[in-house]
């Protein structure tokens, strides 16, 4: 059995980064990965402007009791006149600061009588002015190549006027479920059958990472069925994920089917629980990851082993999300021959310590643990871990995106 960290590194390096990029309209770029480093082409804000609705003055013009004649009402989007001596220009949040003005008085700090503004409370000189370039300077790096684009990144690029972005082409993923006991939800079920939950689960996980799901197929436990499925999947996809049929049973035909297809097995069995029977193979120069059929095993393997591979193949700069640390809450001593990934819920206690509470049933078929868990706590192999011990925590909000 391969050591977990070694297996993780091996899988992360199993795929090639994308070689093809394309242009994508900004409004469709959510979830895509930048294929170019982008720089600021303008200062932000592009000019000094007001942070408040109020009155622009030249600070030096202020004198106790002075009433400033209102020279202009300059709404955001209008060009201000140059401020005349001892006058004020009525401005609004986002209005440009008139030439000659240096301070904005909030409208609540004064009163306008018959087109004259009297200040009741003088702010500090320079108050409420947002200065040109205080946010971003022309030439600053905005986002690095390999950044996945979310709402925040798109806001930054839109603020710079970018309408088209160079992004990598989307990774094409195919999913293959196996097992004669499985039927699709919606079909009538006989006693010996169960519903296929791994197909929708893996499709959801892949989709959440911004990859394209080309096929979600199901093969019967026969060589012919598996062979036909691999033919389609390898022709259409960059990465194939299979689930089930990878252990040691007589109907565990996935590995032989890959070899039959001309593929080669690169690794099989990792020292992790759940997930031990996971395999990595190559066919047509494409990686195939064979996930164990137990739903919680497939989920854990996807989280810690498959997601880094997908990020790498998407061209993302960060392949391994951060690992956090928390204190495990347990009433028994935990210890296994394999690195164990427990489905846990994490919460901060009053001492600001991350506490990790394990789902009471950790069997690898326990599907109800999946929507409950916020992450996986890693209990290292052959080490006794007790209540309050600090262990690595893989937060699903980071590991599944
Ligand atoms: N003698 C041994 N038996 C097993 C070993 C072993 O080392 N020696 N390993 C166990 C471990 S660990 C795991 S994990 C499983 C994995 O086996 P497979 O990957 O071959 O998976 P299957 O046998 O096909 O299925 C396992 C389990 O999961 C259910 N399943 C499969 N696909 C789906 C699906 N799409 N949706 C819902 N549920 C699914 C299947 O019905 C089985 O109950 O092997 C152990 N056995
Ligand atoms: O390691 Mo298996 O993945 O126990 O369920």
Report helical residue fraction. Answer: 10-25%
Characterize the overall form: elongated
Cofactors, ions, other ligands: ligand LQZAQKY5, molybdate ion
Strand order of the largest sheet: 7-4-6-5-9-8
- CATH C-level class of the largest domain is Alpha Beta
Strand content: 25-35%
CATH superfamily of the largest domain: MoaB/Mog-like domain
End-to-end gap: 28 Å
Question: Mean pLDDT, as a whole number?
Answer: 97
* Main beta-sheet annotation: 6 strands, mixed
* Unreliable runs: none
Query: SS-based structural class?
Result: alpha/beta
What's the architecture of the largest domain in CATH terms?
Answer: 3-Layer(aba) Sandwich
Measured on Cα atoms, how large is the radius of gyration?
30 Å
Count of helices? Answer: 8
Number of strands: 26
How many independent structural domains? 4
CATH topology of the largest domain: Molybdenum Cofactor Biosythetic Enzyme, Chain A
Could you please describe the fold and organization of this structure?
This protein has eight helices and 26 strands. The chain has 401 residues and is α/β, with parallel strands linked by helices. It has four domains: 4-19 and 170-314, MoaB/Mog-like domain (Molybdenum Cofactor Biosythetic Enzyme, Chain A, 3-Layer(aba) Sandwich); 22-42 and 138-168, Molybdopterin biosynthesis moea protein, domain 2 (Alpha-Beta Complex); 49-130, Molybdopterin biosynthesis moea protein, domain 3 (Molybdopterin biosynthesis moeA protein, domain 3), CATH 2.170.190; 324-399, MoeA, C-terminal, domain IV (Beta-clip), CATH 2.40.340.10. It has a six-stranded mixed sheet, with no helix packed on it. It has a six-stranded mixed sheet with strand order 16-13-17-21-20-18, with helices on both faces. A five-stranded mixed beta barrel has the order 22-24-23-25-26. Helix 3 (198-208) packs parallel to helix 6 (295-314). The longest helix has 20 residues, at 295-314. The chain starts with a helix and ends with a helix. The mean pLDDT is 97. Molybdate ion binds next to loops.
């Amino acid at each position: 059995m391969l050591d977990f960290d070694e297996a993780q590194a091996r899988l992360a390096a199993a795929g090639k980064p994308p070689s093809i990029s394309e242009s994508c309209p900004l409004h469709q770029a959510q979830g895509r990965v930048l294929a170019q480093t982008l720089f600021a082409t303008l200062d932000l804000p592009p000019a000094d402007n007001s942070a408040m609705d109020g009155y622009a003055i030249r600070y030096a013009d202020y004198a106790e009791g002075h009433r400033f004649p209102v020279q202009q009402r300059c709404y955001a989007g209008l060009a201000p006149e140059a401020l005349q001596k001892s006058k004020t220009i009525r401005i609004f949040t986002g209005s440009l600061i008139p030439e000659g003005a240096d301070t904005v008085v909030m409208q609540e700090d004064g009163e306008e009588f018959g087109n004259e503004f009297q200040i009741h409370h003088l702010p500090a000189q320079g108050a409420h002015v947002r200065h040109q370039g205080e946010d971003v300077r022309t030439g600053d790096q905005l986002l690095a190549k390999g950044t996945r684009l979310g709402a925040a990144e798109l806001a930054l690029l839109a603020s710079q006027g970018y309408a088209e972005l160079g992004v990598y082409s989307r990774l094409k993923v195919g999913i293959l479920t196996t097992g004669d006991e499985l039927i699709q939800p919606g079909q009538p079920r006989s006693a010996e059958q169960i519903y296929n939950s791994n197909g929708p689960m893996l499709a959801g996980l892949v989709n959440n990472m911004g990859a394209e799901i080309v096929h979600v197929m199901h093969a019967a436990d026969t060589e012919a069925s598996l062979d036909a499925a691999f033919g389609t999947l390898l022709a259409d996809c960059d990465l194939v994920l299979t689930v089930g049929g990878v252990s040691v049973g007589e109907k565990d035909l996935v590995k032989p089917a890959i070899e039959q297809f001309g593929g080669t097995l690169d690794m099989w069995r990792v020292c992790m629980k759940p997930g031990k029977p996971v395999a990595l193979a190559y066919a047509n120069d494409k990686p195939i990851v064979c996930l164990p059929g137990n739903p919680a095993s497939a989920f854990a393997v996807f989280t810690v082993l498959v997601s880094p591979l997908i990020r790498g193949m998407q061209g993302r700069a960060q392949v391994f999300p951060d690992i956090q640390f928390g204190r495990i809450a347990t009433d028994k001593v935990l210890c296994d021959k394999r690195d164990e990934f427990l489905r846990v819920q994490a919460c901060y206690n009053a001492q600001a310590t991350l506490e990790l509470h394990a789902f009471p049933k950790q069997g690898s078929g326990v599907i109800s643990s999946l929507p409950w868990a916020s992450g996986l706590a890693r209990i290292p192999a052959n080490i006794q871990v007790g209540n309050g011990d600090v262990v690595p925590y893989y937060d699903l909000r980071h590991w599944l995106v």
